[in-house]
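ok posting inputs for the zinc ion job
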Amino acid sequence: MALICAICNNEKADVVCHHCGKPLCKDDKCRFSVDKDEAFSDESISAFHCNECLKKYHNQNQSLN
Ligand SMILES: [Zn+2]
Ligand SMILES: [Zn+2]
Ligand SMILES: [Zn+2]
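and the output
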């Protein structure tokens, strides 16, 4: 079953945001290295985020064009 990007409706979303679970395509996913994310106990993993959650949970702002 294909995931549809929640941001741009691209039918090729391949990851989901690790906070809100929204599907994200390659243009909209933001990789953010998590050190102390409550959702994960592993030392350091890269999790995918939507731009919204990047700001909301990590205070990061990634400019996407
Ligand atoms: Zn997209
Ligand atoms: Zn999100
Ligand atoms: Zn996170």
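notes: The helical segments are 51-58. The first helix runs from residue 51 to 58.
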